[in-house]
């Protein structure tokens, strides 16, 4: 399965190009290649990640053409919005109607939607979010792979199973060569174009080692690289961007300062935000977000988090449920109901009609149909776990069952089937 569709370069302005995909035109940044109008490229995350030979591109496009438009038809059918429930509250419908036209909704209006308990209102909310997603983003669905390469962490985040004080956890750290082998398998065998390198805050991996790893991956493989390695020195992140890592996954978890302080004794919300602003200044594509359903978290705080992330100018939202871990101080607390999390993601879609919203693996742990339901409630990005099976269960941030025992082959097969059923093209067509 290919996770990108090659496009034809139609115009070039500096490092910004216009790419044509079966008549649809999108923008992408070109930082790596010497391109001319007429060339074919793959783009991921809004960046050109590979220049492809014309003959090869045309062969791939021939296999995609019929399926591409069939998927669009399926998606359009499933996202059709028809309100057959005229009895709904008028204030609720006013909010929904404004949001479906791409107009902003207030904090109070977003909270009204999130707190709804009426089954008919929830159904309309989910369908409206899916309609808005399709209207503003079409049927593109980003598919990224994640490699969790170390569960060693110096931090003591109270909700996290790999916190430094967890003596029950067997620690691991993949060597650079092992990571390269996983990337090679993902790119060559399965066609991944976007990969996240994630670890705890493991300082046994020096900045120089990580930079060498980034350079080696970019030299060998045409892939968009996200970093998720926590708080490191600014100079490292500047050099990492220059070396070819163009995205960061860096969550703030909660914008409530008091709640943040209780959960993160090693850091501050101000420092977290400072990093996010710094990443934006460097030029990184930013994926950020937080936890839904934290102990002591109010619904108002979740809306605050959504608006906070939007104000930061993030490119992708990563909001997933809190799931208690037995080896943490929050072991006796409870995960939120999946309906609550799905409502939250739908509200997020109505807050930001054109943002990319990730279905987190934590959400997939809550319910076997969580990925499908989230994608039909406004989300448009998924993550497949590429971590070798002997280590996947050790990256134990939260107890999970969704991907730990699944091979990459099985994950890819399931993703293929689901995306085909709901009419999503497993690709990121650009900006």
Question: Which characteristics define this entry?
Answer:
431 residues, 15 strands, SH3 type barrels, globular, 17% strand, TIM Barrel, eight-stranded parallel barrel, alpha/beta
What does this entry look like structurally?
The chain is an alpha/beta fold. The protein has helices at 54-78, 90-100, 107-114, 119-137, 176-190, 207-220, 234-243, 257-263, 269-282, 299-312, 338-351, 361-366, 370-375, 389-392, 408-422, and strands at 7-13, 16-21, 24-29, 40-44, 47-52, 142-150, 194-199, 224-228, 245-249, 285-288, 291-292, 316-317, 320-321, 356-359, 381-385. The strands form 3 sheets. Strands 6-7-8-9-10-12-14-15 form an 8-stranded parallel β-barrel, surrounded by 5 helices. β7 (194-199), α6 (207-220) and β8 form a beta-alpha-beta unit. α2 (90-100) runs parallel beside α4 (119-137) and α7 (234-243) runs parallel beside α9.
**Under the CATH scheme, which class of the largest domain?**
Alpha Beta
- Number of H- or I-type helical stretches: 15
Q: Main β-sheet: number of strands, strand sense, barrel status?
A: 8 strands, parallel, barrel
The CATH architecture name of the largest domain reads Alpha-Beta Barrel
Number of domains: 3
Distance between the termini: 22 Å
**Record field, number of beta strands:** 15
Give me the CATH fold name of the largest domain.
Answer: TIM Barrel
Helix-residue proportion: 40-55%
The name of the CATH superfamily of the largest domain reads: Aldolase class I
- On the 0 to 100 scale, the average pLDDT is 93
Provide the structure class: alpha/beta
In what range is the share of β-strand residues?
15-25%
Strand order of the largest sheet: 6-7-8-9-10-12-14-15
Which blocks of ≥5 consecutive residues have pLDDT under 50?
none
If you compute it from the alpha carbons, what radius of gyration comes out, rounded to the nearest whole angstrom?
Answer: 21 Å
Helix/strand order, N-terminal first: EEEEEHHHHEHEHEHEHHEEHEEHEHHEHH
How does the overall form come out from the CA principal axes?
globular
